[in-house]
Design a protein that fits this description.
Blueprint: E1 3-10, H1 14-32, E2 36-40, H2 45-51, H3 57-64, E3 68-73, H4 86-96, E4 101-107, H5 120-123, E5 127-133, E6 145-146, E7 151-152, H6 159-174, E8 179-184, H7 190-203, E9 210-215, H8 216-225, E10 232-235, H9 237-247, E11 260-262, E12 268-270, H10 289-301, H11 306-321, H12 335-345
Parallel strand pairs: 1-2, 1-3, 3-12, 5-10, 8-9, 8-10
Antiparallel strand pairs: 4-5, 4-11, 6-7, 11-12
Helix pairs in contact: 1-10, 1-12, 6-7, 8-9, 10-11
This protein binds 1,4-dihydronicotinamide adenine dinucleotide (NAI), 2-OXO-4-methylpentanoic acid and magnesium ion (MG).
């Protein structure tokens, strides 16, 4: 079977980390003897410049006809029109492909604990997954507008939206340590009251899984003071966005954290959790690890090559442990030097 992949490099450091990762995929496919067809499409700010919109129909169609999508990052100071921003393309693709479940893992082994700015003893053996609801909540709620005197965003969740993401979290926990921590703001938000109530309801179908609840403000503290307590964290769109950037500090850098987004069916999307990093774009300084670990998730989940995925993950961490790392991890290597070292290891 030849899998179809659409690559969306996007803006800023997006092309820098995705183009090198595509070369790594080529090398891995040769070694592990599998085939794929890859097309690259305009997306984000570059698509606004070339086609007048961040998610042109041709790009969406290519994604819809793919098994997997690899995405760099979008956005930047050049595109500030509130009605036509690169970020709208990102929300658009997630909604159009119904990618409601965003999986963001945080893993720290004995070998990688030294990379964290936090105490090694505190982070060693951390292994949790944030399951972020990705197509509801504040980013999508209507009405949404701003004028001179007032701005409105709407936070809406339905029982159906909460139920389907809850099932993802519980099923994941069954394959892990059987603990789900649901994060909300139930003390003040109506949507969080429904969230908590629905999580309790769904939990009845998973008697072997323990369900805990945390308010989001306290969770943000627990995450970096005792990250080992978590197994699966499930939360709504905005909280998951914020908590996952915070969680990226635990293994060492925002540039290290991967993600995968799934729907009920259709293509899945793989992207690092960081943005286009305009402050370092074009300088060959970006850490490509988050992109490469997202590629590994793609190879495992969409290309069904678990050995290859494991091989890539091992190489990414071995390379860093050999000291071949970018500045965000305390190293002095460029993006292209890291890619070269990884290619050699394959
Ligand atoms: N999935 C996406 O495409 C996302 C896009 N964005 C967009 O990206 C743009 C920039 O947003 P920021 O708030 O600056 O967030 P950012 O995630 O792009 O950068 C935050 C900080 O982390 C650093 N950083 C990020 N990725 C890195 C990497 N791979 N290696 C080394 N350092 C890295 C940056 O240099 C910066 O100092 C905005 O337009 C934002 O809307 C933000 C988050 C996600
Ligand atoms: C445009 C934002 C919602 C992107 C982002 O920060 C994310 O998905 O992590
Ligand atoms: Mg984010």
């Amino acid at each position: 079977m030849t899998y179809k992949i659409t690559a969306l490099p996007g803006d800023g450091i997006g092309p820098e980390i995705l183009e090198g990762s595509i070369e790594i995929l080529e090398a891995l496919a040769k070694k592990f003897e599998f085939e794929y067809d890859l097309v690259t499409k305009d997306f984000g700010g570059i698509a606004i410049d070339k086609h007048g919109e961040p998610l042109p129909p041709e790009t969406l169609e290519a994604c819809q006809n793919s098994d997997a999508i690899l995405l760099g990052a979008v956005g930047g100071p050049k595109w500030t029109n509130p009605k036509n921003r690169p970020e709208h393309g990102l929300l658009g693709i997630r909604k159009s492909l119904k990618l409601f479940a965003n999986i963001r893992p945080t893993i720290v082994t004995e070998a990688t604990a030294h990379l964290s700015p936090l105490k090694e003893s505190l982070v060693k053996d951390t292994d949790f997954i944030i399951v972020r609801e990705l197509t509801g909540g504040l980013y999508f709620g209507e009405p949404k507008y701003f004028n001179e005197n007032q701005a409105v965003d709407t936070l809406t969740y339905t029982t159906e939206e909460i139920t389907r993401i809850a099932h993802i979290a519980f099923k994941l926990a069954l394959k892990r340590k059987n603990v789900v921590t649901s994060v909300d703001k139930e003390n003040v938000l109506s949507s969080s009251k429904l969230w908590r109530q629905t999580l309790e309801q769904v939990s009845k179908e998973y008697p072997d899984v323990t369900l805990n609840h945390l308010l989001v403000d306290a969770c943000s503290m627990h995450l970096i003071t005792n990250p080992k307590q978590f197994d699966v964290i499930v939360t709504e769109n905005l909280f998951g966005d914020i908590l996952s950037d915070e969680a990226s500090v635990i293994p060492g850098s925002l540039g290290l954290s991967p993600s995968a987004s799934f729907g009920e069916s259709g293509p899945s999307l793989y992207e690092p959790i960081h943005g286009s990093a305009p402050d370092i774009a074009g300088q060959n300084k970006a850490n490509p690890s988050g992109m490469l670990l997202s590629l590994a998730m793609c190879i495992r989940e969409s290309l069904h090559q678990p050995e290859c995925a494991q091989h890539l993950e091992n190489i990414v961490f071995n390379t860093i442990n050999e000291g071949i790392a970018t500045k965000d991890l305390g190293g002095s290597y460029s993006t292209s030097e890291v890619f070269e070292a990884i290619k050699k290891s394959i």
